[in-house]
Every structure is written in C-alpha cells, then in structure tokens.
Write a structure and sequence with these properties.
Layout: H1 2-36, H2 44-48, E1 52-53, E2 63-65, E3 76-79, E4 82-85, E5 105-107, E6 113-122, E7 127-134, H3 136-140, E8 163-168, E9 205-212, E10 215-220, E11 223-229, H4 233-240, E12 257-260, E13 267-277
Antiparallel strand pairs: 1-13, 2-5, 3-4, 4-13, 5-12, 6-9, 6-13, 7-8, 7-12, 9-10, 10-11
Length: 278
C-alpha cells in the first residue's frame, strides 16, 4: 500500500509539475504572440528572415508624394500608429481659400522582387489602393486627365500608374459593383476569389502581395484571392480589355515604388513590412 501511495503521490507531483511548465510555456507563447502582433514591430524571427519595416509607426520617414519633394501637406498624417490619408473634403483650406493639392504617397526606395504585408481599414463608402511596380517618371509623364482626375496643377499627375491591390468598401462604393474593382482585386484586371473574407468597415484587414519574377499573388486575411503570370494569355487578355490598354509599358516588369493611393477618401494603413528576394 505504501509503495502504491508513494507512486501515486509521485505521479501526481510529476503531473502538476508538467502542467505548471506547460502553463508557463503557453503563457510565454501567448506573450510572444502579443508582442509579435504589436503594430509596426518585427519579431526576432521576422528580422532573421529578412523582413524590414516600411513605416515606423511614428513618422512618414522614407515616404514622399509622387512628383513632390516631400509629403503633400494636409493630406497625409500619422494617427494612432497608422498612416492616414485624410479625406480631401476634410483638408483645411489655405490662406487663398483653396485646399492644398494632394497626391499619392510613395516609398522613397524602390523594390523588384518581394513579399509585402500590411494592415488596412477603410472609411464607409471609401476607396483606395496600394500600388506596386510603379515608375514615378512614367507616371508623372502622363497628362493629368489620364485614368482618373489627378491632383495638383493642370498637366501634372501626382497619381501613380502601376499594378494596384484594390482596397474599397465593396458594398457602399459605386466601384464595388465591378468585380475587378472589389477589395483584393488586381485592379481592373483580375477579380478576387469569391472565397475572400473582408472585414466589416472600421476593422483591420491584413493583406499580402507576392511579386517575384513574372509571378504575382494577392492575399486577403489569409486567403489567396488573386494569382497571375506576367505575359500569360490570361493577363494579356485582361489588359487588352482594361483601362490600361493604351499604356504600352503598363505591365512591363521594373524595379518600382510602393504607393498608397490618394483617392480622396479616409483610409488607414499600418504594419507595412517587406522582404526582398533576388
């Protein structure tokens, strides 16, 4: 009996010790997840894997307006750890009674092959996008009325021309009626997969782009919603039917800027991080 009791006590003690260690490990893992999920920070594993931040959560260092030496005044700001595009109608007028011109916000650096991740949330009935494979020179060389009304002075475009990951209120913005203009789409070219899961307006979505060689992917909240190959029959046909068909260099591969679109609506972006590959 004594041996049985001693064995039972020992077994119970070992079990409690294991449970305590398991609990501590779980708490440590939870803490790590919380720390890793902190906005605008990289985990040690991410740093070791080659990721780097494009936004520090505090300033617009590393960014400027397309066609501008700096950031378009009054239109872009940092708010609660996110880059905010201020809706155009909310931008205060200057001494002349006119609002300062806006424009797209782009990275100073350029990238060729990469994975890009970010979080975003949209205002009700809002519309915006994240563009890539963008040449500032080619974009700025377009007349101001190309594709959409541009901002700035007449004859000058501050709107990037490049591949666009669409971010929009699918249900309330008129563009959401077009399948290739809905969130996650390769704008005006490829409709996002019907399985996509878009968060309600005001909540954060998580997006990812893979752009490597001729291969491209769009991800939305953990689901791959778009996949394409440059030069493929499918993409060439989509391009020929799109609003970009008159721009011969549109789908040419280049080292380009990452761009946040000024479409005139409130939108918030954070956790912008990138990992380059050869």
């Amino acid at each position: 009996m004594k041996r049985t009791r001693v064995s039972a006590v020992l077994a119970l003690s070992l079990a409690l010790t294991f449970m305590g260690c398991h609990s501590a490990s779980a708490q440590s893992g939870s803490a790590a997840l919380v720390a890793g999920g902190a906005p605008n920070q990289l985990t040690r594993a991410e740093r070791q894997a080659g990721w780097r931040l494009l936004f520090d959560g505090k300033s617009l260092a590393g960014w400027r307006g397309l066609g501008y030496p700096g950031v378009p005044a009054g239109h872009w700001t940092v708010e609660d750890g996110a880059i905010r595009k201020i809706a155009t109608q909310k931008v205060p007028a200057g001494p002349d009674g006119k609002r300062p011109p806006g424009g797209d916000l782009m990275t100073v650096a350029t990238f060729k092959n990469f994975e890009l991740e970010w979080d975003w949330k949209m205002s009700p009935a809002g519309n915006s996008g994240l563009k890539y494979n963008v040449s500032e020179e080619l974009s700025g060389g377009q007349p101001s009325n190309v594709l959409r009304p541009a901002t700035g002075s007449a004859g000058v475009s501050h709107s990037a021309i490049g591949f666009e990951y669409q971010m929009i209120d699918d249900d309330r913005h008129s563009d959401g009626k077009l399948p290739t203009h809905r969130s996650g789409a390769l704008y005006d070219l490829i409709t996002p997969d019907a399985r996509k899961q878009l968060k309600p307006i005001g909540e954060w979505n998580h997006s990812r782009i893979v752009f490597n060689g001729s291969h491209g992917e769009h991800w939305l909240n953990g689901i791959k919603v778009v996949e394409y190959e440059l030069g493929s029959r499918t993409l060439d046909s989509a391009l020929a039917a799109s609003k970009f068909r008159s721009i011969p260099w549109y789908a040419q591969r280049r080292t380009g800027h990452i761009v946040l679109q000024d479409h005139g609506d409130d939108v918030w972006v954070r956790n912008l991080k990138i990992r380059e590959s050869r």
